[in-house]
Specification:
By secondary structure, the protein is mainly beta. The protein has one domain: predicted glycosyltransferase like domains (Thrombin, subunit H), CATH 2.40.10.220. About 0% of the residues lie in helices and about 60% in strands. The chain contains no helices and 6 strands. Strands 1-2-3-6-5-4 form a 6-stranded antiparallel β-barrel. A hairpin with a 3-residue loop joins β4 and β5. It is globular and about 30 Å long.
């Protein structure tokens, strides 16, 4: 299936943290666009973070940043998020 995106994604690998309702999960930010990001974790996160959850993504780009996000896809150890701010 061909993906249709309105915004280009930039490959950007940096360490970060996803702050969910009850847990903080170490992650690696794989790519980012104007509207969202793809995050890789060290293992499965099913049951910890659910689809449509609102989470905070904390990462260091040029300086530390924090984004309020909605989880839009979960694939084993990967989370796709949409920025809400």
């Amino acid at each position: 299936m061909e993906e249709k995106r309105n915004n280009d994604r930039i490959a950007f690998i940096t360490m970060g943290m996803v702050a969910g309702k009850s847990e903080n999960i170490a992650c690696c930010l794989e790519n980012i666009s104007n509207h969202g990001a793809l995050i890789c974790t060290n293992g499965p996160i099913l049951g910890v973070i659910q689809l449509e959850d609102i989470v905070r993504l904390k990462a260091i780009l040029i300086s530390p940043v924090e984004f309020l996000c909605k989880v839009t896809r979960i694939d084993a150890d990967r989370i796709a998020v949409q920025f809400l701010e």
